[in-house]
Model the fold of this input.
Amino acid sequence: MENKFVEKKIVYFNKAGRTNTRETLRLAAEEAAARGISKVLVASTTGETARRAAEQFAGTGIKLIIVPHQFGFKAGKRFPPELVAELEQQGHKVHFATMPFHTDDFHGCKAVEAMAIALRTICQGMKVCVEIVLMAADAGLVAQGEEVIAVSGTRAGADTAVVALASTTSRFNELHITEILCKPLKTRIWPLGPTPYDRPRQD
Done:
């Protein structure tokens, strides 16, 4: 008789943030090897997570697609140009592009922010994972329907990893998150003020 379900493990981190980077990358590498996935997408703003990902995946034959913030998104330390050259020499790709969930002012509507908020109800990293898959597919760095792993985090580092079937922004409905490998139990980012976890209890 054919099995009607598959039982898998999800790792939940008690706290969000960079302290989970090592374990998140380990889980992503383990799953990519087990599934024969050849591309792993990693969100990285300053390059710290990208460096650690390159170390984790060294010698595996798996190619990284590193996706930093778009230029002009916010002030602060940017992804180092010298690291771009270093990673691409190792066979990886660093891709700068428009972040699709941050275009509401350009389009004059709040639809994209509403999608971002909906994804943040799972965790901040889920929003970013979906975003970087769209960005990579729009650039042709991953194929339509290709199975990939996406890794992102909350503010800094990595704490979220998912398996996804890639798609472009013009075919957004065909992007599917097929499995969550890990995520934080709580996310520190909330678009409209403090998170429910930060509010004082009334009882």
Q: What stands out?
A: DSSP finds six helices and seven strands in the chain. The two ends are 51 Å apart (CA to CA).
